Amino acid sequence: MSPIDSALDTLAAAAAARRLTVDLVERGPASSLEEAAALLGIGAHNLVKSMLVRSKDGYLFALVPGDRQIAWPKLRAVVGVNKLVLPPADEAYEACGYERGTVTPVGARGDWPVYVDERVQGERIALGSGTHTHSLLVETDDLVRAYEATVADISK
After folding, report:
1. Measuring CA to CA, which residue among 115, 3, 96, 111 is closest to residue 48?
2. What is the 3-state secondary structure (H, E, C) of the chain?
3. How far is 154 from 80, CA to CA, in rounded Å?
4. Which residues contact 41 (CB under 8 A, 6 or more apart)?
5. Residue 84 sits in which domain range?
6. According to the model, what pLDDT value does residue 33 have?
7. Whole-angstrom Cα distance, residue 77 to residue 52?
8. Residues in CB range of 64: below 8 A, 6 or more apart
9. Could you tell me the CATH number of the domain that includes residue 40?
10. Alpha-carbon dihedral sign for residues 22, 24, 30, 34
11. 1: pLDDT confidence band, cut at 50, 70 and 90?
């Protein structure tokens, strides 16, 4: 079994364990968010950036539409902390098991809180899949339910 197949199997098993229906779609490598969205036939808004963020208490996942950025003051207020940072790539990989650009809460090493920007509520979105050649398609509301995620205004 190839490393990509193994990663996708792990992700599919993690989704099934949470009763989360996902579609894994091969899209090939992309050099930008816009290119990846085009390969999937969706807008950049629905290609959600899933980022591992560090707080004083540990980690969390922040999911924001591809055409937006984390609004740090808003996210800090929702989380209830004074400081949040994106950890260095090697730390993020060690913590969640995914490289930057492939991060997803599904199948991650840690079971950290998930925060989803309210702008993608009720939509079908694409997330990282743990590989650079596939995307995970999921209904946002199902992801929120499966991870007991917090939905809030966390982007700009």
Report:
1. 115
2. CCHHHHHHHHHHHHHHHCCCCCEEEECCCCCCHHHHHHHHCCCHHHECEEEEEEECCEEEEEEECCCCCECHHHHHHHHCCCCCECCCHHHHHHHHCCCCCCCCCCCCCCCCCEEEEHHHCCCEEEEECCCCCEEEEEEHHHHHHHHCCEEECCEC
3. 13
4. none
5. 3-152
6. 85
7. 17
8. 48, 49, 51, 70, 117, 154, 155
9. 3.90.960.10
10. negative
11. confident
Q: Cα dihedral sign for 34, 139, 53, 104? A: negative
Tell me the residue type at 103: V
Whether this prediction's pTM lies above 0.90 is answered by yes
Domain count within the chain:
1
What pLDDT does residue 105 have?
97
Look up residue 2 and give its two tokens. Answer: 């190839």
As beta bridge partners, residue 116 has 63, 151
The two structure tokens encoding residue 121:
């509520």
